[in-house]
Amino acid sequence: HMEVCQEAFWKGLDMLAQFFVSPLLLEDCVDRELNAIESEFQLSKNSDECRLQQLLCHDCKLQHVNNKGKGEENGKDKDNHNRHHPFANFSWGNRQSLVDLPKENNIDMMKELRKFYNAHYYAQNMSLVVIGAYSLDKLQAKVVESFSAVPSLPSLPRMDNDEQQTGSTDTNANTNTDAFYASMNVQPFRSNPCTWESKIDPQQTPIVKCGMPFQPTSLNRIIRSIPVKDKHSLSITFQIPPQYQHWESKPCDYISHLLGHEAEGSLLSSLKETSWVNTCCAGVGDGGYENASGHALFCMTFMLTKEGVDHWEEILDRMYMYLGMMRHYI
User: What is the number of other CB atoms lying within 10 angstroms of the CB of residue 9?
Assistant: First the structure.
């Protein structure tokens, strides 16, 4: 996304469009971006929230290692029960993952970058939102003018001289085109593309086939971690089905409002009386880890006092009692 001042709106809009129409993807620009990624990683790696997130990802990866082969022994589907779930991947990126490891494995990252761009950055795989202090007719006209050249389908792989294969009527070229689209698994996700009726069915996205990130045998566990900051917290994570189909009613928002309420008679009010908890929050996060097409993670977090650390089990008891009361009356 980008924000520009009103005077530079049209120029900025066209510059944004050019990234999707004719990107340069120059190697020196990639090097600068790698430095920025490494800087962001160094700043975030000491964040307790980020460390907890990666701990969950690591736990997801461990279940794949520990359960490898058990699916076949128990007569289960190996693909569904022992697959390395995308949730377990290291998705931040740093110089080690984007430079050092590819070099060790003889992977050309520039070639992979362009392949990824060509495979995923096309019109039917995008949604565009433009907000500006102009009439809708003028905004629409400028958007059509700037973005109409964005490819509607994935582009063909770039040649060694960085020129794309376009405009060829050769039979072999057409065969290569069909094979390329098949290899990219291009599916007609959208109905009525480029209209207000355009819809994407999340059930068709590849990640849905991976199922939930945590198997039942990996739940009902206690994980203890040492924080970087001088604080004490208790986090309870519930794995629930994906919530995209409930975008109108948002049931998780109601539950998080009740669990995180601070008025008299609330769960937090009860725990504050014991001097065990200072604050609490609950809900499904906005990030892809917590709220994805194939799963959702509902988290309840308590910020504990030093005394509360010794009474974490009683805090859990009261939370489950409160959930039981909600289940009875709602």
Answer: 18
- Per residue in 289-305, pLDDT (tens digit) is 899 988 999 999 999 99
Return the exposure string of 140-174: e unless at least 16 CB atoms fall within 10 Å of the residue's CB, then b: eebeeebbeebbeebbbbbeeeeeeeeeeeeeeee
Reply yes or no on whether the pLDDT at 169 is more than 60.
Answer: no
Using DSSP, how many helices (H) and how many strands (E) does the chain show? 14, 5
Whole-prediction pTM: 0.75
Sign of CA dihedral 216, 286, 207, 100: negative
CA proximity to 123, closest of 152, 155, 148, 145: 152
Query: Is the alpha carbon torsion for 49, 54, 59, 64 positive or negative?
Result: positive
**Least confident among 11-20, 79-88, 121-130:** 79-88
Contact 296, 287 (CB under 8 A): no
In single-letter form, the type of residue at position 274 comes to T
Give residue 2's region: left, alpha or beta (phi > 0; psi -120 to 50): beta
Report d(CA 87, CA 80) in Å as an integer.
Answer: 14
Identify which of 146, 48, 42 has the alpha carbon closest to the alpha carbon of residue 93.
42
What's the sign of the alpha-carbon dihedral 264, 270, 271, 274? Answer: positive
Query: What are the start-end ranges of the E strands in the chain?
Result: 190-191, 199-200, 232-240, 277-284, 296-304
Segment 260-275, tens digit of pLDDT: 999 999 999 999 999 9
CA distance 322 to 271: 12
Mean pLDDT of the chain: 83
Contact indicator for 155, 22 with CB cutoff of 8 Å? no
Residue 297's Cβ-side half-sphere holds a number of Cα atoms within 13 Å equal to 20
Look-up: residue for tokens 């039979």?
A: 171
Asked if 302 contacts 316 with a C-beta cutoff of 8 angstroms, the reply is no
The burial class, CB within 10 Å (0-12 / 13-18 / 19+), for 315 is buried
